[in-house]
Structure formats: C-alpha cells, structure tokens
Amino acid sequence: MKVQNARLLAVVAALVCIATAFQTVPWIALSRGTDASAWRGYKLKEFPAKGWDMADGVIHCLKGGGGGDLVTRETYGSFEFRFEWKVSPGANSGVMYHVGEEFGASYESGPEYQVVDDAKHPDGKNPKTSAGSLYALIACNASKSVQPAGEWNKGRIVVRGNHVEHWLNGMRVVEYDLGSPSLAALVADSKFKAWKSYANQPTGHLCLQDHGDEVWYRQLRVRRIDKPN
Asked: Is residue 9 part of a domain?
C-alpha cells in the first residue's frame, strides 16, 4: 500500500509540474489597440495597405477589400492560439497554421480552422466545411455550439508535436494527428492531394484568410508550448 501511495504521489507531482510549466509560458498578444505590427500580408513585408484595418484591438477584414491573407511575422511549431471571431451574414474566412510562404497560396500548406456563418453560407451546410472544422476534412463532434453571424465566438487551436485540437466556445470539437495514416487517407481523398506541402510543415505562420467577406478577429494571443516527450 505504501508503495502504491508513493507511486500515486509521484504521478500527481509530475502532473502538477507539467501543468504549472504550461501555465507559466508567456502569452504574446497579437492584437492591441491599433498596433498591427505582429501581422503582415502573405508574401508581403508590411500590413496590407487595403482590405484590412485594426482599431481597439479588433482586426477587421473588409468586404471585397482585396487585401489578401494576413500572416504572423513569427512562425510557430507547437503552440496554443486563442482568438475570438465574428462574421457578417453569409461570410466566410478561416484561420490557418503551419503556413509556408514558398507556395502559391496559404492553403497549399496550412490546415484551416474554418470560420464561417453556418446559417447562411453554403459551407455551413456541410459538417466538414462548417465552423470549427478542419476545413474539408474533419467535421466537428457533437459538442459543437456556435454563435450566429454578428456575435462573437471563442476559438482555440492547440498543436503539441503532431497532435492538433480545434476548440470552439470552450469545447474541443476536432482533434487529429499530423502525419498519421488516417489524416493521409483523408487528404488523399480531397482537393488537398494536389499539394504535397499541405499539412506537412513542422512550423509555419498563423494566417487569417481574406475570402472577400467582412469578418472580425479580436483577443488574439499565442504561446509556444513544448512537444511531448
């Protein structure tokens, strides 16, 4: 009994250490006031001159603005990214990660957390392209709850090593493993099979997609996390 208790205490202590270490990793704010310095255009050196604006910590994609996608100046491998998003009626956007710029477009490398008005955009009718999904590949589970157009939703993306999680309004709605046979099979049966770079980058930029619709993002923050041993 003493041996079992000692082992249990050791396990608890280890879990506490891991949790404490995770909590102490500093967050980096990616949206403060009018400061857009954490972002620039895809394949550009600066923040786009049109199509996007930023005020009071809210990044706003203008309808038909033609600014192109935004990417972070920094790249991330294992990370936790938290953000809030809001769409106009019928709007579509997305948050991509592990995005490389040596390709023609951001979606040729970066998996996408779908941001969309489920009620009025055609993508919302298909679970695999609805809000929170791994776009075109994995639908959200039954715990999904999404706010309608015009209201804020809370998003969260966690990448730890090869394991990826999508969270929506406090619930984990998607999880998968990069490089796994199951993901490879899904990619092989999708439009992404044309791009060998898709979901194959160990690190990359975070990316906010300009799909020509009006969308808002706020409370964007990221922190790097350790890979599992």
From this structure: no
- Render pLDDT for 75-134 as a digit per residue (tens, 0 to 9): 999 999 999 999 999 999 999 999 999 999 999 999 999 999 999 999 999 999 999 999
Q: What is the pTM (predicted TM-score) of this model? A: 0.89
Q: Is residue 79 part of a domain?
A: yes
Residue 22 lies in a domain: no
The model's pLDDT over 138-193, given as tens digits with 9 standing for 90+, comes to 999 999 999 999 999 999 999 999 999 999 999 999 999 999 999 999 999 999 99
State how far the Cα of 152 lies from the Cα of 86, in Å rounded to an integer: 5
Spatial distance between the Cα atoms of 219 and 188, rounded to a whole number of angstroms: 35
**What DSSP line would sit under 28-58, residue for residue?**
EES-BTTB-TTEEETT-SS--SSSEEEETTE
Range of the domain at 68: 28-224
Domains identified in the chain, total number: 1
Minimal CA–CA distance to 103: which of 25, 199, 169?
199
Report how far residue 32's alpha carbon sits from residue 218's, in angstroms, rounded to the nearest whole number: 9
Residue 229 inside a domain? The answer is no
CA distances from 3 to 6, 8, 10, 37, 203 (A): 5, 9, 11, 55, 43
Neighbour count for residue 66 (Cβ, 10 Å)? 10
The CATH number of the domain holding residue 205 is 2.60.120.560
DSSP letter at 176 equals E
